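Case study 2.
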Amino acid sequence: MTKSPLINILCKDIPGNVTRPLYQEYDKRLAEINRIWAKEGNNYQVLMEYEETVQSLLAASLFYRHVLGHLKGAAGFYNDLNKQQEKECVIKIGSSSIDQKQYNKLLGATIAFGEIKITYQIQDSFFEFSETVQFLRNCMDLYNRPEYEEDNSI
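Prediction:
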């Protein structure tokens, strides 16, 4: 049995209306990366050796943009709304509700993703790109950076 790409793991149990555009963008950008790699003499060909890592970083970036950003926003909104309330205010959106239990799940997901970013020293700016070439530049920055940077700032 072959390993599932990270995109499938991240999208497991997420509704199709959310994952469909994510998968479409993933496939489009992956095809574009392969076209860029196919061109001789470009700086990004060094990343071909790390194809699985590039695919995982792409999946994480798109997940961050399409899903996690919205989860963080919903968790923040719920927290702000309930900060000064005596009684819990449940947020109802369509057929879904965000209560304390859901808030804890949202918060847990954002914290877990944050821990991954810390472990691999990936800044939020890594996930901010509009063009595939920008994504590859971000990957090159990671590739060229020392494995573990020490930050002595306070």
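The chain is about 60% helix and 5% strand.
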